[in-house]
Amino acid sequence: AQKITQTQPGMFVQEKEAVTLDCTYDTSDQSYGLFWYKQPSSGEMIFLIYQGSYDEQNATEGRYSLNFQKARKSANLVISASQLGDSAMYFCAMRGLSNFGNEKLTFGTGTRLTIIP
Amino acid sequence: DTAVSQTPKYLVTQMGNDKSIKCEQNLGHDTMYWYKQDSKKFLKIMFSYNNKELIINETVPNRFSPKSPDKAHLNLHINSLELGDSAVYFCASSQDGSQETQYFGPGTRLLVL
After folding, report:
1. Which of A69, A94, B14, B27 has its CA 20 to 30 A from that of B96?
2. φ and ψ at B84, to 5 degrees?
């Protein structure tokens, strides 16, 4: 079974500062994927970034980067130069095998990020 | 164009009623999913369909029945609604359910009174 742990229920960060959102995972799968999604107050789920377990380079997408440390089983999201529009819930998720042998996403409990002007 | 759409966006109903939520994706994806997000924002998969065939059915009560008329649509029918069914239900889709990112719909906020 897969498990995702996000230990920061809430964070407050000053605008323009960088922020790191923590995510650790547990799986016995050899091949897996890690995702970050953003959920603003409007409620939709927005895909941010993906890291495959065999990817040697850390994933980057604009201001988002994923600090992947496989040995420590962590996949932290780093947002550089934070903006007011970054205020939202952030979910870490892992793609792994379901009980049926097919792939599914398991989500963490989320971190609510608030950017302070 | 909206990639993954859901209707309705809001649904308020009485206990015991039967209701349906519709989902459509225009991304040409093969796999579609239903997730439930509870009041504590925890997201959990309910169902997954690949090319109209059910491939994941997590521990969801039998009152919930997904229906996929074609690979672009995955509807969720709920019988005998209970207070605990109040949640946000998200539809998502991905190319083949394995290597690809899942894209989510806007969610349907269900409130059972």
Report:
1. A69
2. -70, -10
